[in-house]
Amino acid sequence: MTINVLFAARPERWDMYRGPLSDAFAEAGLDVTLAQEIAPGEVDYIVYAPNGPVQDFTPFTRAKAVMNLWAGVETVVGNETITQPLTRMVDEGLTKGMAEWVTGHVMRHHLGTDLDVLRAPGDWGQRTPPLAKDRPVTILGLGQLGQAAARMLTGIGFPVTGWSRTPKEVEGIRCLSGEEGLREALASALIVVLLLPDTPETRNILNADTLALLPEGAVVINPGRGPLIDDDALLAALDLGQISHATLDVFREEPLPEDHPYWAHPRVTVTPHIAAETRPETAARVIAENIRRSEAGEPLLYLVDRDRGY
Ligand code: NDP
Ligand code: OXD
User: Fold this and answer.
1) Centre of ligand 2 from the C-alpha of residue 105, in Å
2) Domain assignment of residue 114, yes or no
């Protein structure tokens, strides 16, 4: 029997996803009708984006799963109209993109690239940056994205510490957890990268107290979520020189409001929530595999734990 899959992301995403999804369904041997509009009572699966047209899932009485195209689910976990299993996106393309973005921004600060871009003959001055082995990096969040970034950075030679909710063992990475682990992870970090989900436990994890644990002049890189940082505390730490630079991809309000102090701050780099994007070709295969599993009665991949919030 044909499986009806509703594509409930923003309309401009349709042209990007229609082909890859159709190909992935065919490859998985699934007979699927994929459309942007299907009578709600006839929908079997919903491919979903939090900024898409569907927010009330009550009419989708037959739907067997809601499949988020995003990795982050903070705006979805509280939606009580989703009674079906909810999956989040773990996509090889998105993961590689994040590891590359993090590595690029770590390298910018590590090498001091901005200082070496000369604008006038008088700027000529030669510096020798330390080697990666002498620049400890801490990653808060050691999940899919944190581990991928950690692996890329250790490959270059950075000593990497990762911090997570539950204890972990990952080869080549110093793994810490818990409150004491956080203190230890920050105390040694010349660069700290935030790759945590936005949950009640992680909100404002970088605040006046925790920023003060970092060595003076440390760099903050946040491709996670805006609420992980207490913005006033970060601005104060930047003004004091406790933090030498913050590269921020995500904000409490996006786009970042015109009058936000981050725009004018000389030691803040703002990027427009582009650290990593779900890639249709690889993501489509994840969606197809999950529908195949569901139809075969097998457990779904990447289920969200709504009580935990991620
Ligand atoms: P995962 O769920 O795979 O990993 C989350 C990590 O955070 C896990 O290691 C988890 O610990 C840890 N964690 C969660 N809560 C706590 C806590 N209270 N204390 C300590 N550690 C905690 O998520 P991903 O790696 O796939 O994604 C991370 C985040 O990146 C997303 O939630 C999203 O917000 C953001 N993101 C940003 C993008 C961008 O373009 N800027 C793109 C994609 C994602 P444990 O392992 O013990 O469960
Ligand atoms: C995501 C994101 O969560 O792009 O996937 O931020």
Assistant:
1) 18
2) yes
pLDDT of 228 reads: 99
Count of domains forming the chain: 2
Q: Which residues of the chain have pLDDT under 50?
A: none
Residue 42's pLDDT is 98
Q: How far apart are CA 154 and CA 147, in angstroms?
A: 10
Residue ranges making up the domain that contains 262: 92-270
* Burial group, residue 200, by CB count within 10 angstroms (0-12, 13-18, 19+): exposed
CA distance 188 to 266: 25
Q: Take atom 5 of ligand 2 and give the residue whose Cα is closest.
A: 70
Q: Is the same domain home to 27 and 44?
A: yes
CA 164 / ligand 1 centre spacing (Å): 9
**What are the pLDDT digits (tens) for 131-144?**
999 999 999 999 99
Res 15: pLDDT: 97
DSSP state of 289: H
Q: Which CATH number goes with the domain that contains 235?
A: 3.40.50.720
* Closest of 95, 116, 114 to residue 219, by C-alpha: 114
For ligand 1, is residue 106 a contact (CB within 6 Å)? no
Burial of 273: CB neighbours in 10 Å, binned 0-12, 13-18, 19+:
middle
- pTM exceeding the 0.90 threshold for the entire prediction: yes
